[in-house]
Amino acid sequence: MSGGVEARLAELGLTLPAVVPPLAAYQPAVRSGVYVYTSGQLPMVDGKLPVTGKVGGEVTPEEAKELARVCALNALAAVKSVAGDLDLIVRVVKVVGFVASASDFTGQPGVLNGASELLGSVLGDKGVHARSAVGVAVLPLDAPVEVEVQVELVGGA
Predict the structure, then answer these.
(1) For 64-74, what is each residue's pLDDT tens digit?
(2) Whole-model pTM above 0.90?
(3) Which residues pair with 101 in a beta bridge?
(4) What integer is the mean pLDDT of 88-117?
(5) What is the Cα–Cα distance from 65 to 61, expressed in whole angstroms?
């Protein structure tokens, strides 16, 4: 185990998962200069979605919030895959979350708090970020939530 971020994950009882393989023609994360941009991360656990469906329908907001935490953990794994070390993170700049929502569900921000709170717990002040929480009709594989993250790293490319 390397430095502080992964030690903090362990303190929280979390393990950084393997990077989720792409579902199509894209990379899980790309580095450009001091920034890493992740592709949208689904809440995959051991290669599958634990729950599918719409939030506010088949999936409760509480379940979706936990799934957003999984997405954020998967995003950290994607960041590490291109940065090499999570301790290089200066800050999380932006989080964008998509919530597959029943037509009357308006609690997208609460769902995305799962991702934001995980990043804050793991990274402290470096995890404070700007965010968008967007309700959508459907996501890949009928996932309830998808999260993408942009982080700034120490130094240049």
Answers:
(1) 999 999 999 99
(2) yes
(3) 55
(4) 98
(5) 6
Q: Which of these, 66, 25, 17, 72, lies nearest to 46 by C-alpha position?
A: 17
d(CA 157, CA 153): 9
Q: Two tokens at 129?
A: 């970020």
Tokens read off for 123? 């990274």
For residue 112, count CB atoms less than 10 angstroms from its CB and return exposed for 0-12, middle for 13-18, buried for 19 or more: buried
- Residue 10, SS3 per DSSP: helix
Q: Per-residue DSSP letters for 88-126?
A: GEEEEEEEEEEEEB-TT---HHHHHHHHHHHHHHHHGGG
Count of all residues that appear for the chain in the document: 157
Chain segment 46-61, per-residue pLDDT in tens? 999 999 999 999 999 9
Q: Is the dihedral of CA 115, 118, 123, 124 positive or negative?
A: positive
pLDDT tens-place string over residues 14-44: 999 999 998 899 999 999 999 999 999 999 9
CB atoms within 10 A of CB 27: 14
Beta-bridge partners for 48: 45
